[in-house]
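Record type: monomer structure entry
Structure origin: computed from sequence
Chain ID: A
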Amino acid sequence: MRLRARMCGRALAAVLALTTGLSPLAAATPNHSPSAPADLTVGDRARPLNVEGAPLFGWRPRDRDPGEVQSAYRILVRTGDGHTVWDSGRVASARQEYVAYAGPELTPATSYTWTVRTWDVRGAPSPWAATASFDTGLRDADWAATWIRRTTGEPDDYTLARKDFTIRNAPIVRARAYVAASHQYELHLNGEVIDRGGAFSYPDEGYYRTVDVTARLAAAEHATIGALYHWYGGGQGRPAGEPGLLVRLVVDHADGVRQVVVTDSSWQVTKGPWLAAPQRNGDGGDYVEDFDATAEPLGWNRPGFDASAWRSPQVIGTHPSGVFTRLRGQETDLTTEVVTPRSITKLDSGAVVADFGRVLTAVPLVTFHDGQPGRRIPMRAGYLLAADGSVSRSPEDNQNTDLSFAYTERAGEQTFRAFTYVGFRYLEIAAGDTDIRAVLQHTAVDPARTARLDTDDPRVDAVFDLMLRSALYGAQEQFLDTPTREKGQFLGDAVDISTATMAGYGERGLTRQAIRQFIASQQRYWPDGRLNAVYPNGDGKRDIPDYTEVFPGWVWDYHLHSGDRQLLGEAYPVMTAVADYVRRHIDDTGLVTRLTGGSGAYQYGIVDWPATMRYGYDMDTAARTTVNILAVDALRSTANAAEALGRDAEAHRLRADASTLAGAINQKLRDTNGRYIDGLRDDGSPSTHASQIAGAYALSYGIVPPESRGAVVDHVIGLGLRMGPMTAHRLLNALTENPDAVVARLTDEAGPGWANILARGGTFTWESWDAPETGQSLSHSWGATALAEMQRTLLGVTSLAPAGSRIRIRPPHSGVDSAAGTVPIQRGQVAVDWRRSGDDFTLRLDVPVNVRAEVHVPARDAASVRFTGKGKPRLLDVRDGYAVYEIGSGQSVFRS
């Protein structure tokens, strides 16, 4: 990854160097018409197969002229046979993302095509874009399929289900398979796995997926559709619900006849070849996998298999039926990659240990070349090695989780692929004649949108790569607490990981899904405005007060990244309920006091976690400083949303309340030195402890008055790093104007922090800086959030308006002497390469079409700045050691 980042920076420099012979005073070149738009999406997906409601169209305008913006667009939507369903006409707008379909209602489960053209700022049109397509989804009433299951009382239920059928003897023009299951499934067709997925949701909030199987079927052939589903019962990240499988296969023939195969009483089911095993830990959820290949019914998913010993399924009823009352199209995908070990070591015992070089979120994939029927092969995954080179069995080394697997061989060569992922680096197998691999998995992202950062400090680059990788591995079918132990989607974790994946990969779908799930948690459980701390989950109603408080800020951050007004509108009532929740807890002190919620160590607010990461924060306070500052942010973020949605009066009231609360914080939660204390006690007396998190939050959330900022910054810097990975990104954000301090925190190998994780052999961000000593998680993605602060402070890129339509590029005065990289924004990739050498400074940049950039060039004055490029920057100001310009799209170079 480092090599790719350096190549990216050098390639950008080489391309931009071609412009250095151009003069800013050269005669204006004639306007060129835009090129055809590219990267067409619906709901941010390139080829979705289950679009529900009005499709939301997106594209990327292209134009070789500098400073270009889109002035208008026109969208055409057609049926598969070319009939125009909707013509938007020429719409004067710069919007290129989440543009809503406004035509007649579309037919469910139908394929459509669409295209778009744009006009540039001078009114020149582009060609039409290459045609893209999408499928509408199924409504609940359209399934005409029954939920089925195997009758069993097993808490760890693996069930195989199958159905034979014959394709009509007529050419096939379109075929789709729709599938839903509780909780995990593999869908098989004619002996091949065609889809894998998870549905860890409440059965009245379920998901289904759609698979294009047109190329997998042939006219007149005998065929078999089958599924393996796995139900856990209730646990972390897994609402209990009930086991069930729902499938609908639709085959459209050229003669107009539609053939449909659905789950019903004619299917056959049997127990999957897994043996009863204990749960991996006391947190619920996963069970140890113990696979018995001697019991595997080989060929069960192919035509001609003898299933006479299988049983008829229990039929629950036609969907919607029983507890399964609602299904939505799944907007996220999982992607997988087979990886090989970095090394394999043979132990004296004859076992082998594979080292994958880093902690993965993956399943073992092991081929046994000479199977002996009935021989049981133990396997153990883990994070650390014992002194003898074996995988450590210590609970403290493995998050108190049993990471073992077992496989009972049949004769001959065979391959075991585990069904449920865990986090691990090492895999020990008690057999030598094997090929060992792993299947890495994470939410699907576009590799072309992956962020890059390459500075002159390799320690900084290594920390960025650690965060980038860790964020992705914690994004699965939902955002994870950790892939090993609790797979629940905690709200605080989700906000942190989402922040990192949006900044690092341009991810949108999983964030959108998670926001909607936490919206559902308020609707299900919390009429007083709170949200679940973990959702979906097996334990039902549970909250953490300051997790609820961060929700409005998360929604607003998503809107800034995406420009998605539809989701902002969906979330706004929930945001206002959160705002009212914190307002109700403002007492006579003017502060939020004893914010209702939580229990035990979380009551009235978690502050930071684990408890050792609070670094002495005064938990005896009733009006906690961090809780009050987050309340200000909740009010401000809700005001931002109100303003964006045209609710100006509501925005004014929310901003006024936020200002009043901020004033009370500054009046009552500072000591005589201007430092922010941890809060007030019940009797109104102030805490005597001024924690780093209180000061960092005050700086990061804009609470500190300008005249007090220096003293607070000095206090916060003087404490080093005394915040946990859950909140430490706020420290870096607080120190944006102090890049030397940011780099010091990122690169300190001796004290707490990310460089210390690397120095101690860590390859995934941790739950706490002392995780190895305290048995905390060694695979906790919330420590990856600071990559967004690295982009802002060290590369210098910040989005200022929704969808990145306006950005700021502001290289730091110090900290590092060069930085090159890319930042994914909704409207494209921002590429930056800046270098400082003595008194000379060079900034090369590439800004996407339809984006305006505010460029801060380190300079004594504007006269010392030289510009090279096809556009012409506009000088805005000279302040704080920068000459500030505005510039539009294209490649350009500033020198000072």
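Annotation 1: The chain has 15 helices and 42 strands.
Annotation 2: Residues 838 and 867 are 19 Å apart (CA to CA).
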